[in-house]
UniProtKB/TrEMBL annotation:
GO terms for molecular function: structural constituent of eye lens. GO terms for biological process: lens development in camera-type eye; visual perception. It comes from Xenopus laevis. Belongs to the beta/gamma-crystallin family. Monomer. It comes from the Eukaryota. The keyword Signal does not apply. Keywords: Eye lens protein, Repeat. This is Beta/gamma crystallin 'Greek key' domain-containing protein. Crystallins are the dominant structural components of the vertebrate eye lens. Pfam families: Crystall. The keyword Repeat applies. The lineage of its organism: Eukaryota, Metazoa, Chordata, Craniata, Vertebrata. InterPro entries: Beta/Gamma-Crystallin (IPR050252), Beta/gamma_crystallin (IPR001064), G_crystallin-like (IPR011024). Residues 2-40, 41-83, 89-129, 130-172 form the Beta/gamma crystallin 'Greek key' domain.
Length: 175
């Protein structure tokens, strides 16, 4: 079972809230989040309620301030535990919405989308197997987007405001 603890102040001080499952309304428990301890599992935390806004992947460890999880501010309002997955991985990415245009299949991480896809944009994708994280920049940097198995007909289906994807990786590689 996963366990994540949120603290209002830096360095694990101030009011805290422990969570063992998905939570879509953390702000009812604390007003700001400046440090986090992940005791078990991997998590996505979100800036806004209902898994909206900036997303951040956290694996087991300590994050003494929001800059350690590459946060833009101290606002965390929801979280989702990422299930541990040990099966195979397959994702299909498309250059256009609704699974149109050039398509490539990946079973491994991609550190430079442009080198593989000749495009900086992915407009739709189908996660066949596994859990993946898209990054807005190459080399797994920038804004992050968590993708579970399923169809994503447009980039806003995975929470992005544009189709720019610089890299992506399997969640298994992040444990």
């Amino acid at each position: 079972m996963g366990k994540i603890t949120f603290f209002e102040d830096k360095n694990f001080k101030g009011h805290s809230f422990e969570c063992n499952s998905d939570n879509n309304d953390l702000q009812s428990h604390f007003s700001r989040c400046n440090s986090i301890k992940v005791d078990n599992g991997s998590w996505m935390i979100y800036e806004h309620a209902n898994n909206k806004g900036h997303q951040y992947f956290l694996k087991q460890g300590e994050y003494p301030d929001y800059q350690h999880w590459m946060g833009f501010n101290d606002s965390i309002s929801s979280c989702r535990m990422i299930p541990q997955y040990t099966g195979s991985f397959l994702i299909k990415v498309y250059e256009k919405e609704d699974f149109r245009g050039q398509m490539l299949e990946f079973i491994e991480d991609c550190s430079h989308v442009f080198q593989e896809f000749n495009n900086h944009e992915i407009h739709s994708c189908n996660v066949i197997e596994g859990h993946w994280i898209f990054y807005e920049e190459s080399n797994y940097r920038g804004r992050q987007y968590y993708l579970r198995p399923g169809e994503y007909r447009r980039f806003n289906d995975w929470g992005a405001s544009n189709a720019k994807v610089g890299s992506f990786r399997k969640v298994m590689d992040l444990y």
